[in-house]
Amino acid sequence: MLHSHLTTLNAVSLILNLFQEEGCNAMQLLDGSGIGPADLGHPDARITTQQELQVCANAVARRAEIGLELGRRMHVSCYGMLGYALLSSATLGDALRLALRFPALLGTIFQLRLIDDGQRVWLSASDYRELPALAAFNAEFCMVSLKVICDDLLGRPLPLLAARFEHARPAYHPLYAGALQCPLEFRAQDNAVAFERRWLDMPLPLADPITHKAMAERCRRLNLEFTGRQAWLGRIRQLLLKQLDAAPGLEGLAQQMNCSSRTLRRHLQALGSSYQQLLDELRFERAKQLLAEDHMPIYRIAETLGFSETASFRHAFQRWSGVAPSHFRG
Questions:
Q1: Looking at the domain 6-210, which fold is it?
Q2: Looking at residue 5, what is its pLDDT?
Q3: Which of 96, 105, 104 is CA-nearest to residue 152?
Q4: Is 325 exposed, middle or buried (0-12, 13-18, 19+ CB in 10 A)?
Q5: Does residue 104 or residue 15 have the better pLDDT?
Q6: Which residues of 186-200 are buried (b: 16+ CB within 10 A; e: fewer)?
Q7: How confident is the model at residue 151 (pLDDT cuts 50, 70, 90)?
Q8: What is the pTM of this model?
Q9: For the domain bounded by 242-329, which CATH number is listed?
C-alpha cells in the first residue's frame, strides 16, 4: 500500500461537494487523510493516492454506492490540461489513446487498455493493487467516469453494448442502470465497458488540430514533471519507511537525499506535503498493518514506530483514524 503516486484534489473535492449538498459535515471525510481545509483552496495542490483513498474509504463507509454517483460527476473538464487535449482531438479513438498515454494525468490507479476484437472495443481497467475493501468503489468510479468522458467528448451519450466488473454483484446493483444502461456481468476477469468499434473513428465536435498539438505537448511536459515528482516522492517514502523507529528529521532526510533542508522543504511544499505529513502517513499505514496482525502489544508497536511513549502513539493514532488503537484492533 505504500507505493503511493501523486494525484490532484479533483476526486476529493467531488466527494466533499456531494456530501455537502446532502447537508452532511463533509470535513469529517478528511479524517485520517492528512488533508486540511487549507489544502482545498489550492487548485494546483498535489496529494498522494493513499490520501485520496482514505477520503474515499470514509465516503464508502457512509454510502457504499457512492462510486457510481462520483463517476457521473467526473466530467472531462475535471482533468485540466489533459481535458482540453482530449476535447480538441480529431476522433474519439485519438482522444482515448491519448488519455491512455498519460495515466498520471488521468489519475487512474488501474492499468487502462483498449481491446479491439474487430467488432467491438472494450475499454478495460485492470491490475488493481490498492485497498481490497475499495475495489468495487474504485472500479465503479473508474468505469462510470470513463463513460462520462466519452459522452462529453462526443457531445452525446456513447451507447454501451456491455459492462463487466471483477467484484461480486452488490446489493445496490439496480443503480448501475442509471449510470451505464447496458447488460452487466460481475466476477469478470477485469473491469470494462464495450461499444461498437465504429465509435473510435467518430469525429469530435470540438476538434482543433492547432489547439490539440499545443495541449498534447503541454501534457507531455507536465507528465514528465508529474512522474518525476512521483519518483522523487517514492524515494523519500522508501527512506522514511526504513527508519520509522528512529526518524531522521528534516535535516537528516535532506542529507540522505543529497540536498539542503530548505530545498527538501520547498519541494515537499510544491507537492502539497511536508516531512511530518509523510512521516505520519507512513506511521499510520504501518500501525494499521501491525494492529491487524494482532500479536504485537501496543507498547511495542509504539516503539517500532519511533514513539518514546505509548500515550503519544495512542494520541497520534486517535488523530489519524478517529479511534483508539485498541478499538481499531477490535
A1: H-NOX domain (3.90.1520)
A2: 64
A3: 96
A4: buried
A5: 15
A6: eeeebbbbbbeeebb
A7: very high
A8: 0.74
A9: 1.10.10.60
